[in-house]
Amino acid sequence: MQPPGTAQRIALVAFPGIRAFDVAVIAEVWGVDRTGRGAPPFELRRCAPDRAPVRMPGGLTLAPDQALDWTATADLVVVPGVDDHLAPVPEPVLDALRDAHRAGVPVAALCGGAFVLAQAGLLDGRRAVTHWNLTTLLSAAHPGVEVVPDALFVEDDGVWTAAGVAAGIDLCLHLVRTAHGAEAAATIARSMVTAPFRTGTQAQFIEHPAPTADDREASDILAAVRERALRRLSEPLTVAELARWAGMSPRSFARHFIATTGTTPIQWLLDQRVAAAQQLLERTDLPMPEVARRCGFGSEVTMRQHFAARLATSPRDYRRSFRRSFRAAG
């Protein structure tokens, strides 16, 4: 957790060939001052081998403002994706990434940036993900990497990787959530007009035949069911109940739900309950049993079990860490 009030130092690693979209995502999450809205302060630096403008595909350039050695003193290092996934990465960049990881700095890569971390040897023997259309290439080019085919993002020993394009936004917001709490991530997400977090896997985005009218109707029905469920999280919702709202059998409902969201109805519900509990723990002083009741866990014990499984912490420790941050921001 980042100490309240101190600016988190973010190093964006820049070299020729990085993708402008990923650079824009990193800059939008960490490069905009939203402290007036209650978001934490950040110090984003663009680190490159020299101060020459960095060329990106599409005719754009990026102006570096720090040398690569700044990465080892940062709180987080982020690598944008690249267009040419097999092109050699400048050795000074690879050395800087290795040095940062040895110094204990978390290192994250968006989309094809996983290939950069793989060239640096940071993914050897570790789990990693990239765009679903690049997983076979990553496995072939770097057989020492344990490629996870369908996750939106994964972490292994302080090394983070994300799937394609929008999953980079998911990872960046998750890294904010990890350091500063759910409310900070939600504040930034609202400013970006995007979801604070998405559940499921990138399997839902892999190319499939064009959806039929029935598929589109089912998707609309499921969206309405999810919205209704969010309004009634305090209730002991079941798959059978959600299926009844959708006018489907439980088996058909579960099949359509997984196809649409990439996760099961039960997992989705649990993710929403944990997210709701995080917000209440940050924003209120409600007793733990009341937080558990409002979020549909039934008991504090059950809530504690799910926090341990998903966040590797307890509700009380989470509140102790992030309620203080929320008050400081307010």
TrEMBL record:
Q: Which domain of life is it from?
A: Bacteria
Alphabetized UniProt keyword annotations: Transcription, Transcription regulation
Any stretches that span the bilayer, and where are they? Answer: none
Report the Pfam families cross-referenced here.
DJ-1_PfpI (PF01965), HTH_18 (PF12833)
Q: Which SMART domains match?
A: HTH_ARAC (SM00342)
- InterPro entries xref list: Class_I_gatase-like, DJ-1/PfpI, Homeodomain-like_sf, HTH_AraC, INH-QAR
- Which residue numbers delimit the HTH araC/xylS-type domain? 223-321
Q: What is this protein called?
A: GlxA family transcriptional regulator
Species of provenance: Streptomyces ehimensis
